[in-house]
Amino acid sequence: MRNSLRSHGGLVSHLSILIIATFSTHLLRQVFAIPRTCNLFQGSWVSDNSSKSNNIPLVYDSSQCPFINPLFDCAKHGRPDRGYLRYRWQPSACNLPKFDGKVFLEKLRGKTIVIVGDSISFNQQESLTCLLHAAVGPNSKITTEFQNTFIDEFQEYGVTIAEFYTRFLAQITTEKIGRVLKLHLINDYGNVWKDADVLIFNTGFWWDVNGNQKGWDFIQDGENNPIVRDMDRTLAFRKALTTWAKWVDSGVLNFAKTKVFYQGFYPDHYRPSEWGRPELKDCAKETEPMSGSTYPAGPPPRLSIVEQVLSSIKSPVQFLNVTTLSQLRKDGHPGRYSDAGNGFVDCTHWCLAGIPDTWSSIIFAYLTLDENMA
């Protein structure tokens, strides 16, 4: 898998880990046992006063993590408030285990995690890598390369984390007429994804983008169907996700080895009327999460499509429905505090440290509780 990843290019970060801790499977069950019936995605954000620094529970210092994209480093770009780091996600019927990087690396020893999606998936990968980097200390040796695939390798544990950037999961081909988004074909990188031990998928944001920024010029649904300039985007989203689901069920994946997750619909916060602040223009002035466990505007309309398609899959796929808990965090975006420039207010991506660390903690909970990952 690692050679296959590198053959596709990558930002390769070799982390030589100097601190090695061993944990038995029995101890993992003791420390991280939570009811399997608990819904980790239903709950609310609560103030956490257990911090050692100004009542803010910093899981890592963004200035000490070399992996953070400047788009996500809100502290570096002058965000004055730190309160958005003071909250933790509290499920209604149980507790979310605190992320422990050494336990994670020991549990995943020798395995490869592949995160597939758009730039929000970069948020996820960088969160996970920063959490692990903080756990192993500052003496890690790091080398980097860059092409198209981002790969972080924790060498002492043999753990590799890769992020494949793809906006649609479906394939885009370059033809004489231009770029054609083929809804009936899985992305070519599927040949690499299939060898991973953990796969985390997502798609969503780019299905509504227009103009040259959308990433394709024409669209096709079926090899024998005509190539057209556009179609209903919600229908296109459903068709591409269905193609992915068929790929999952096609037998290409070895589910005795590979654990598959689909990460829920990532929300943005450009419409303050959704959370009762119509006098605002965007998320820029928000500094606190919403109280309670429901988002006033309800779930994104296409979340139901995700749920329907996932319910049709016969293979074991875990739905990481982080949608609502992320909707409640209107305060978690970079806003004006990134290197996007030109006065752009980013209410799509997320600050790091920040909300993606909770996504990582949920992944941690699922993987450390999985008997088959031992």
Automatic annotation (TrEMBL):
Keywords: Membrane, Signal, Signal-anchor, Transmembrane, Transmembrane helix
Main subcellular location: membrane
Any single GO CC term annotated in Swiss-Prot or TrEMBL for this entry: Golgi apparatus
Keyword S-adenosyl-L-methionine carried by entry: no
Endpoints of the signal sequence: 1-33
Trichome birefringence-like C-terminal domain location: 96-365
Protein name: Trichome birefringence-like N-terminal domain-containing protein
Family label: Belongs to the PC-esterase family. TBL subfamily.
Pfam families documented for this protein: PC-Esterase (PF13839), PMR5N (PF14416)
Membrane disposition: Single-pass membrane protein
Record's subcellular location: Membrane
InterPro entries linked: TBL, TBL_C, TBL_N
GO terms of molecular function: O-acetyltransferase activity
Top-rank taxon, per record: Eukaryota
Domain Trichome birefringence-like N-terminal: 37-95
